[in-house]
Design a protein that fits this description.
about 220 residues, DUF4129 domain-containing protein
């Protein structure tokens, strides 16, 4: 059959322009077509995506002159500086300081400065037993805070004195004498005196000023 004959055969089935528009509007009014269209949220998300893509896209700098590249570099540096000012620079994690250990079987975690202050207060009251014990504890805590000694819980005064003498050999004799004085007052109940307190006070002052030797064992 020729094309002309086919057109004549199907002519009654073809709509006129008005009918075609009506059929198209009816078809597009179907809910299934409306559901397939992007929603307002979809269109907003697409707009944001396009904006970010344009913002992060690296420009083609082939046709840029040196001045333009310098300006771009300055802007990048300024953006980094602003970011640091707003959010701060990255910091390494700071390791928390270990909790102070008990000293010589007592649950005493006071700092060296606290122990020194309380020893001085006891000395002013004439409580020499307390002053001697507290000041020797200040010596031990001070060396521990400096990382020169690390006596385990329950370490004896003598064990501490030996470890401290390895870190500060120049104080070995004074440490041994002070440890003996501490034991006499703390455990043997021998009375402390102003002289015994002065001995440990001098040892503490000297220990604060003394730096460990290179060969000292920490």
């Amino acid at each position: 059959m020729s094309p002309a004959a086919l057109a004549a055969a199907f002519a009654p089935l073809l709509p006129d322009p008005d009918q075609a528009q009506e059929w198209a509007e009816r078809e597009l009014g179907d809910p299934s077509y409306q559901a397939a269209e992007p929603s307002i949220i979809d269109r907003a998300a697409q707009a944001v995506t396009r904006f970010l893509d344009d913002l992060l896209r690296i420009p083609n700098t082939d046709g840029w002159g040196p001045a333009a590249l310098i300006v771009l570099a300055v802007l990048l540096v300024a953006a980094i500086v602003v970011g640091i000012l707003i959010w701060g620079r990255p910091r390494r994690s700071v390791r928390a300081a270990p909790a102070a250990r008990a000293l010589f079987d007592d649950d005493d975690t006071r700092s060296a400065e606290q122990l020194r202050a309380e020893a001085e207060a006891a000395a002013r009251r004439g409580a020499w037993d307390d002053a001697v014990v507290l000041r020797f504890r200040a010596v031990a805590r001070g060396l521990s805070e400096r990382g020169l000694v690390d006596p385990p819980p329950g370490a004896t005064v003598r064990a501490f004195a030996r470890e401290a003498a390895r870190a500060l050999p120049a104080l070995a004799e004074g440490l041994e004498t002070a440890a003996t004085t501490f034991d006499d007052v703390r455990y043997l109940r021998r009375p402390g005196t102003a002289q015994s307190y002065r001995l440990i006070l001098d040892l503490d002052d000297t220990a604060v000023r003394t730096r460990p030797t290179p060969m000292g064992t920490l």
